[in-house]
């Protein structure tokens, strides 16, 4: 019990020993906390693990829809933050993988979408996702990348299966829609057929109305033709009567001319009779013998008859003037009818052209019809309209030809009538003059007879009776000749009366047929108007007809397209075992290893070897009395060279032994030379650093070396990728020598590290070894200058407690002793 009490008492009395023990008690927690904290939850921090994504996929078309699976994967990854996805080209990704910027590369190949669409083919191809890992960089990072790639492959598979399901659903819906469209097309077809039927009905009504108008036109033409015949006959009678009248008037004029001359002679004789009344008595008996009562009576009767004929002639002359006026009206109406018939024919041709043009315009404006359909439809409708209108035109032309022929005859007759009316007018004027002359002559004759009768009673004898008798004889001759000529004149008058009566009858018949002719023309005009109305209605109903035809064709096309689409889609969906397998498992995962590490032991070898070399160097400086001077009185350089030789010798032995044993136990080495060189450079660097700390700061320096070891355990990235560790360790990672030792070891064992990074690692390790070796020499020079070159708590580990028990005065005495020995050695060298 007393032994235990004294041990603790001595510990508490020796402050240096107490601090050392306390520091050592913190080493486990420091190791545990630092190292464990660096690996606390690396898988939670995979969002910081950089993985390159290369999308080389080219979109394709599947079942009429664009398929771009690669782009969909990229878009989904941009929303996924489980991994630090980086999107770039293949070249950039490969350079980053070599230089340890990215731990793996996930490549979406060019035929990714094409493989997805191959399910409709007989030999579907799996969608292959390629991921490239660099195990030399970090084995666990490769494992994480593989897991990430597997998860990605699962996501892609689910997306593709979902896309397949949606595509099948869409295909089914589209097929249902196609059937719906087919039903809709059938309904539209029925509707279009109904509308077409209605339009055709209206078209038929328009044609019927046109036909009705044509019928009325034909009836009007028939009536017109029927009226033209009697009219022509009347005109012929009129012409014949006018000719007979002209002939009779000529004869009358020839007969009246001598009579007028004789009447003049009678008038002269009467004048002479009044002068020679005395001579009248003697000649009276001869006159009475010559002119007997019977002759006088006949002359009186004939004169009365002549007066009546002259009066009828005057009446007929007025009728002739009226006939001339009516003939002019008939000629005018004949010209009007002819013009209307020409216009009607022209209107029908114009309507035909208008209908055809409307049909062509309506069909051309219909954008839903194909060119072939438009052409065929135009040809069919145009032929139908042309045929119907051609039939109407033929009938109309036939009737119009007949009318034109009759109108030509009527026009000729009208011309003849006009000519005859002119002659009649001239004859009428002549007859009027002759009638006046005849009336005067008859009056004078009657007056002369009366005077003669009066004279016979009043003048029984006279001297002038002889002259009277002579004059009466002369008058008797004249009257005898007048009696002879007067019957001829009366016959002409009778002929004139007969011709006038015939002319009157012809005119009456002509007048009676003019209303019929006018009605026929009116009916003809009404028929033309009705025909135009029917054609107009036909033109107005053409859009509705075309709309019905368009709907009919659109419905038929929609029906055909829907059914064809359904058939085509059903043809593309052929279920086979390969397609079922592809549907269930459409993707595959391929790993291209940039560098390969077979197992976890091989992956940890760089880390363990580098750590072991550092621990070995630290233990060497813990055990070996680094400050102890082998020969007193030597220079600091000699002291430095002696310590460097022993330290670097030990580290070289550690490296060689370690590398050899690792090869012997089966560690696969990519480059043996680099493997040994890396072990040597790492050991030299570590030895230089630890020797500097131990030589300069003694035990506190050794403690600092231990802290550095712990920091490198967590910050060198020996186990997990540094990106999945804490921010503190990522920050100190570039400043830790073990980080570069790991790079060099990994490259030597499994390659995969870029030559630039390897050269950089060797340069840093060698540089640190040189720098700390030089710093070691400078530190030893300072220690020797201050006479502390042989003063260390580890010079004699067995006397550690005794050393710690010595007082400060004892230490000062040892320093003074060292100084005195140093002066003595100096004086001895000077004497020598």
TrEMBL record:
Chain segments annotated as transmembrane: 604-624, 644-667, 673-696, 703-724, 759-778
Localization terms from the record: Membrane
Domain spans labelled ABC-2 type transporter transmembrane: 17-171, 450-776
Basic and acidic residues composition bias: residue spans: 818-832
GO molecular function: ABC-type transporter activity
One GO cellular component, as annotated: membrane
Pfam families (alphabetical): ABC2_membrane_3 (PF12698)
Keyword Disulfide bond carried by entry: no
Lineage: superkingdom: Bacteria
Main location: membrane
This protein's record includes keyword Coiled coil: yes
Coiled-coil residues: 296-323
Residue ranges of the region described as Disordered: 813-832
Membrane topology category: Multi-pass membrane protein
Name of the protein: ABC-2 type transporter transmembrane domain-containing protein
Organism: Enterococcus sulfureus ATCC 49903
